[in-house]
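Exam revision sheet. Question 4 asks you to relate a sequence to its structure. Input first:
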Amino acid sequence: MASEWKQGLCNCFGDCGICCCGLCCSPCLTYGTANDLGKSGLLYCLLGCIMPCIPALLLRQEARERYNIEGETMEDVGTAFCCTACVQCQTAVEIKERGDSSK
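Answer key, structure tokens:
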């Protein structure tokens, strides 16, 4: 059975530490989230400097698959493109609340 995200997309202030990190240093949040998911933080960070919505999309999909969160690829594409910062915060909070965060 598929689960839901622990934090809503627009609930950025649910975890103020992650929200502030995403607001002040988006590449730092991307780097940490990628590392927490076992991906190359540096590669995702560099990709985010060119096109920020791409690593947000890839990391969101990875988290959704890993934690069996319901959703569809087109939904992920739309949210990553339109609400990149919110997607980054939501994904980072999910990892933290599932206990996979290195923070």
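Marking note for examiners. The two ends are 28 Å apart (CA to CA).
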